[in-house]
Design a protein that fits this description.
single chain; about 700 residues; alpha+beta; Immunoglobulin-like; 5 domains; 16 helices; flat
Length: about 700
């Protein structure tokens, strides 16, 4: 056995004993800290504390075991084994050559070493320390388990703040407590509220504990717009519970309508907000030389927590012109950081996705929150990685620019067809409103593409295809255009230029777009088919729009057969000014530009009537007011009102005490903020002294 193996054989038992002793001492401390963490912050905190504690204990154990090295072994053997003659160091040396005398001594003591065992070098257990730590941990764990936590055990009642006078024989509320148990996914702790008004997360469970003096017989919780809740006896107290899905107003009725009316209390249900996704990288990034991967960064935040895993939608657009291929896939990604503010930065390798030069990679992060059930899903902003094509642009000496037939944005017609086919495929799973909305959205994309193609035709195809006649919006004298002198030439039936010369005029001058007549005619047919496709899409008939979209694509492919389109660099050409009409004051031929003012039909009739009745004007009512119509109006407009609960409470207060002037003033103020506003021009300020003198000088009244 060489020196290395001999050293390992003799040192291993001592190291194992020291590691086990260290872990045994750390285990009671870890359990005590885990119990405290579980009691204070829940099971997740307990698991985290246990994991960290054991990791620290293992690190300390390894560090303690590392102290048992060669020097310790030699020192211990020489101290405990006299027969080794203080020469045990010779047994564990392999790297240095030994002298003849050292070799002789090593051989003499090698046989004596086997007279003992490695277990003789093991140190004892730290029994007293281990017992002390175990006893201390047991005390801490017991105290943590028995220590009352907020929201557990019987609640502590606080004096009531109803403010009602005591009347003989009529029960009244004297002590109260409201326990709020939030949903588990929020991670919020159970809490007790001394007030009966509270703001709680939506879905929380509320538990009322009330005490009356004298003892009530059948107390209830009266909901302002709902069924009353009965309270159940629990010793000297009365209890009730319910879940909170929406905000509500209620009052505690201890005596079934006898005595004074108790005040209203309000519970607001705070809805779980959807997560927010923000892009930390630039919206458009260009691929750098030698780059082989991309790591887009996103930040996702939520009020209660973002799910640790998300999905990344990756869309690739490879190719140029109409020969573009699209592919889409979703991959799972993991986030890091706190649960309420996670960071997502996946690494995307170009080779894995087939991303090459001349393409775009568009990524979009899809995250969910921790709401249970039905987590909310949100799509973040899109980030684009562009890899320019290595092909250099052509140039010439012309005063202009030479482009390929179709610019980059002309590649969208094929994508419109893909979107239409996908919409038709998903029709059964969509609601009619969603189906119509998506169809109209694709129609908007078709309109944008049609307008861009119309630029090559001088903008003549901004609307529906026009007939070559004077019907519809024909041009006439005085319409603001320069028509020039009449054309005196022999017309050829069916020739486009002759028809335009006779019935209208072309807006696209030859310097603006030098398309040859054949290419121009094909492009106009493509634009006409786009218009038909757009019309069907916006009216909710994508199945009827699909043939027109295919025809437009076919015409575009024909236009691609052309070799060049020369676009001249020209500025705006405004119609010439008619100098003969300037400074003459003649208004013949001018149309009125005054827009008719349509009256706005208001829907605040009951609110306006109640507002006038509560005021000081001639229509005011000093006594009780009929508030039934106002309550119906409030229910019908609850979604748009700034605070429908406050308005309902004010209505109930005025109904209970019509003579309360502050209550009437409060209701009137709430009605003023609830009614719709109609924009009106501000009244002009009265003229000051200087203005009055000016108006008097010009003959106007101040």
């Amino acid at each position: 056995m060489n020196a290395g193996m001999l050293f390992t054989h003799w040192i291993a038992p001592a190291r194992n004993r020291r590691s086990a002793n260290t872990l045994a001492l750390a285990l009671p401390l870890a359990m005590a800290m885990a119990a405290i963490g579980w009691r204070v912050a829940g099971p997740i905190a307990a698991i985290a504390i246990t994991t960290v504690s054991l990791a620290v204990a293992l690190a300390v154990a390894r560090r303690q075991a590392a102290r048992f090295d060669r020097h310790w072994l030699v020192r211990t053997l020489d101290a405990n084994r006299p027969e080794l003659e203080d020469s045990s160091a010779l047994l564990f040396t392999d790297d240095a050559p030994l002298s003849p005398l050292q070799s002789l001594q090593r051989g003499r003591i090698a046989a004596r070493l086997d007279q003992g065992a490695p277990q003789d070098l093991i140190s004892g257990w730290s029994t007293r320390t281990l017992l002390g730590l175990s006893l201390l941990a047991a005390i801490v764990i017991t105290a943590a388990l028995l220590w009352p936590r907020a929201g557990e055990g019987p609640p502590t009642l606080t004096p009531s703040s109803e403010g009602l006078p005591a009347r003989p024989g009529i029960p009244r509320l004297v002590a109260q407590n409201l326990r709020i148990i939030p949903p588990a996914y929020t991670g919020l702790l159970v809490r007790d509220s001394a007030s009966l008004d509270a703001r709680v997360p939506q879905g929380s469970r509320l538990e009322w504990t009330l005490r009356f003096d004298p003892q009530a017989s059948a107390p209830r919780l009266l909901m302002l717009a709902g069924e009353p809740m009965a309270l159940h006896p629990d010793g000297a107290n009365w209890i009730a519970s319910r879940s909170t899905d929406a905000a509500f107003l209620y009052r505690v009725d201890p005596a079934s309508g006898r005595g004074a009316t108790p005040p209203l209390h309000r519970i607001d249900a705070i809805a779980d907000a959807p997560p927010q996704v923000k892009a930390l990288s630039d919206s458009l990034t260009m691929v750098k030389s030698g780059q082989r991967n991309w790591s887009p960064a996103f930040a996702a935040t939520d009020d209660y927590g973002v799910a640790a895993s998300a999905r990344l939608r990756v869309t690739l657009a490879i190719g140029e012109g109409e020969n573009v291929t699209f592919s889409e896939r979703e991959i799972p990604v993991s986030g890091s950081g706190p649960v309420r503010d996670r960071r997502f930065a996946p690494r995307l390798d170009f080779s894995t996705f087939g991303f090459v030069a001349g393409g775009d990679m568009v990524v979009q992060l899809i995250v969910r929150d921790n709401r249970s059930p039905s987590p909310q899903e949100v799509r973040g902003p899109s980030l684009i990685l562009r890899w320019p094509s290595p092909k250099a642009p052509e140039s010439s000496g012309l005063t202009g620019m030479v482009n390929t037939t179709l610019p980059a944005y002309f590649r969208s017609q094929r994508q419109i067809i893909i979107d239409i086919e996908k919409l038709l495929k998903d029709k059964r799973s969509l609601t009619p409103d969603r189906y119509l909305s998506r169809s109209a959205s694709i129609g908007g994309d078709q309109q944008i593409l049609r307008v861009r193609y119309s630029q090559f035709l001088g903008g003549e195809n901004e609307g529906a295809p026009e007939l070559p006649t004077a019907d519809g919006e024909a041009h006439s004298d005085g319409d603001g255009h320069d028509h020039g002198p009449p054309v005196a030439r022999q017309n050829v039936f069916g020739e486009k230029e002759d028809v335009l010369a006779e019935f209208g005029h072309p807006h696209d001058e030859s310097p603006a777009s030098s398309l040859d007549p054949e290419t121009r005619a094909i492009l106009k047919q493509a634009v006409d088919e786009m218009w038909q496709s757009e019309r069907e899409l916006k009216t909710g008939h994508p199945d009827a729009a699909l043939p027109y979209a295919y025809k437009a694509l076919r015409f575009i492919k024909e236009v691609q057969q052309a070799t060049r389109i020369f676009l001249s660099r020209v500025g705006p050409e405004l119609p010439p000014i008619d100098a003969s009409r300037r400074m003459t004051g003649k208004r013949e031929g001018l149309g009125s530009r005054v827009l008719p003012v349509a009256p706005i039909e208001g829907d605040d009739g009951p609110a306006a009537a109640a507002w006038r009745a509560l005021g000081d004007g001639p229509g005011a009512i000093r006594g009780p007011i009929a508030l039934g119509a106002l309550e119906g109006w409030t229910r019908a407009n609850a979604t748009r009102l700034p605070d429908a609960l406050a308005l309902n409470g004010a209505i109930d207060t005025v109904r209970s005490d019509p003579a309360c002037l502050p209550c009437r003033a409060k209701l009137r103020a709430l009605l003023w903020t609830a009614m719709e506003r109609t924009a009106r021009p501000a009244r002009r300020r009265p003229a000051d002294a200087a203005g009055a003198r000016y108006l008097d000088a010009i003959g106007g009244a101040p």
